[in-house]
UniProtKB/TrEMBL annotation:
Protein name according to UniProt: SET domain-containing protein
Xref: Pfam families: SET
Domain SET: 8-265
Cross-referenced Gene3D superfamilies: 1.10.220.160, 6.10.140.2220, SET domain
Coiled coil: none
Organism: Anisodus acutangulus
InterPro entries: ASHR2-like, SET_dom, SET_dom_sf
């Protein structure tokens, strides 16, 4: 059953066993932008790097950070960003709540780091209820099962938030309650996207902030996605856009009526790693085509298959034994090697830069002609498709 059309290119439908999902309303070309989504709210991923990234736009602070004059927690990249934040991300409610939390952190020493981040989320969510009730209602409408959140966590985090939030807080039509806190935590659990730190080859890439996006939250997972998301947090953006907007582009041709899926993590994860991550973080097991194939492999077989099949396909491409459109169009990869039908994906659409493991998608097409330049959604590297 169709529910709503978030953009002319996508619609939300109910798919049995997968819940609300996004499907294409027309044939999509490689690199085509199918969604540009602005977050409902953002919140920091750590209390230790608040002077590294702006507390409003989350850009990397290049020059001396500008501290909030009222609290010891928040820093900004420019005075203009601080001024904007006073009516949005860093209102007096947020400022006072963060101040109370940081000052009394020693009393909350039993909080795990993840729970501290959840406190930041709850402050941001209740602030949204204050400044934009309609957006807060959208947040509450997103998928999220309260039973998936520990009752102990709900009780503990609500106690903390009730203590640190200003006693005079009036949420209008909403009320700061344990039930609402539990519902909010459930939404965060399955809908938050990480805004990543800049890619550095020599170290693991961290998360600078988390955001909840109203439309992107409907993308389901697939271990071989047909779309990927791009973020340009540290880039200058054109008028009418935000640097924290999520840009989603399709990787290859997609037929009308096909579900559009993202991978919730790098596609090089092994089967056991993927299943554990999905179960712990999102509460489901994956049964996509790739997982069905890999279900009985050991991790060593997984590595060997990726290496061996990748080498075979590289050799075939070098010999020009098969044209690209034949490989994609008629499924000969699947017919030729039923043990590893997705080998082509890793050769074609996974970045080969050291320690990156990002997904490649063509740049947006111009004049309906697909671009031959591929962009990595992790390191940002650009390469010609015929060089892959």
């Amino acid at each position: 059953m169709d529910i709503i059309s978030p953009t002319p290119l996508l619609k939300i439908v109910e798919i049995q066993g997968r819940g609300r999902s996004l499907v294409s309303t027309q044939p999509l070309k490689p690199g085509q932008i199918i969604l540009k989504d602005t977050p409902l709210l953002l919140y920091p991923a750590s209390s230790s790097k608040t002077n590294t990234f702006c507390s409003n736009c989350y850009k990397l602070i290049i020059q001396s950070p500008i501290p909030c004059p009222e609290c010891i927690f928040s820093f900004f990249c420019t005075s203009n960003c601080h001024s904007i934040s006073l009516s949005s991300s860093h209102t007096p409610f947020v400022c006072q709540s963060l101040t109370h939390f940081i000052k009394n952190l020693s009393f909350n020493s039993n909080l795990l780091l993840d729970q501290q981040v959840q406190v930041f989320y709850l402050i941001s969510a209740y602030n949204l209820a204050l400044i934009n009730p309609s957006s807060f209602r959208v947040l509450l409408s997103l998928q999220g099962d309260s039973s998936f959140v520990s009752e102990n966590d709900v009780y503990l985090l609500h106690s903390v938030v009730s203590t640190i939030c200003p006693s005079s807080t009036n949420l209008g039509e909403f009320r700061l309650s344990k039930e609402l806190t539990g519902a909010l935590l459930a939404k965060d659990k399955v809908n938050a996207f990480g805004l990543m730190e800049p890619f550095v080859c020599a170290r693991e890439r961290g998360v600078r902030a988390y955001g909840i996006y109203p439309m992107a939250s409907f993308f389901n997972h697939d271990c071989l996605p047909n779309a990927c998301r791009f973020e340009y947090v540290d880039s200058d953006v054109s008028s009418g856009s935000n640097n924290t907007d999520m840009i989603v582009r399709v990787i290859h041709d997609v037929d009308e009526g096909r579900e559009i899926c993202l991978s919730y993590f790098p596609v090089n994860f092994k089967y056991s790693e993927r299943q554990q991550r999905l179960k712990e973080d999102y509460g489901f097991s994956c049964s996509c085509d790739r997982c069905v194939v890999e279900a009985n492999w050991s991790d060593q077989e997984d590595d060997d298959a990726m290496d061996n099949e990748g080498e075979e396909i590289e050799e075939e491409e070098e010999d020009e034994a098969m044209e690209e459109d034949e490989v994609i169009g008629n499924g000969e990869v699947e017919e030729r090697d039923q043990d590893f039908p997705h080998a082509y994906f890793f050769i074609r659409y996974m970045c080969n830069k050291e320690n990156c493991w990002g997904t490649l998608a063509p740049l947006p097409p111009s004049d309906a002609t697909p671009s031959t330049i591929m962009e990595c959604n992790v390191c940002g590297n650009l390469s010609k498709s015929d060089e892959l």
